[in-house]
Amino acid sequence: MSDNGALSPPELSKALAAIGEAKASLPMGRMFLLGLLAGVYIGFGSHLATTVSTGGVAYFGLTKFLAGSVFSVGLMLIVVAGAELFTGNNLMTVSLCSRRILFWGMLRNWGVVYLGNLLGSIFLALLVARGSGLLVGQVGGTAIQIAAAKTSSVPCGDVSHNVAFFLRGIGCNWLVCLAVMMAVASKDVTGKLLACFFPIMAFVSMGFEHCVANMYFIPAGIFAKSFAEARIASGLSPGDLAALNWGAMWTQNLVSVTLGNIVGGGVFAGMVYFYVYVRGTEVCKRG
Fold this sequence. Notes:
- The radius of gyration is 19 Å and the shape is elongated.
- It contains 14 helices and no strands.
- It has one domain (9-278): Glycerol uptake facilitator protein.
- By secondary structure, it is mainly α.
- It has helices spanning 9-24, 28-52, 60-71, 73-82, 86-89, 93-97, 103-131, 138-151, 161-185, 189-206, 211-224, 228-234, 238-243, 246-278.
């Protein structure tokens, strides 16, 4: 343990192996419910980011910084209050490589938690759009703009939209998992909150893509399309509005972003730290 009371990188990496083992053994009902909660918590941060991105901020970079700063509340709620987030659980590759869990046990957790995150996010989007009416006006227009940008099929520079979003997914979850790792290393709530804030602010400000956040952003934009004021505020053409739909959510975003998130968190964060600090230690099970 370091002088400030936090776990050192080797201690942290070994702790991740035990944490992943515990996650794999969670009862399915509890796993699903905690997944629902995480989807709602990320949705809270996503709606807050949508709100602060609406009107009044003159500079693109400042808007992104403010959106990223408030979006971090979602991971703070998950880390401190407790919930199961698919992207954070990609760190279970440490447990897999340590032979603490089976591959199918990891996939079971990822599948159940992913479904819970999806339903929780859509539930909050429905609550915000249909129940509270918070997406009727300008905020709804911003929600539509965000969702349309995430589902557009327009190429991003020299690569296709899907390739670009796959790569953005890698960068995103590399940072998200580093945030989770630092939060695990910290021994007090203040340290955990700071660990969540900076990497999450960074990934949003830089324009990377998070699959669970998009499980809120895109449905919120789809729901907001039903309000005439929101459609007008978005400034999008009827064709662009029609292209924003449930099919595009998967084919133009979630599939590519989810795969990128798995690589960023599971490989570049989890497997790298396993190789550096855990491989060949007493943490790994033999056989």
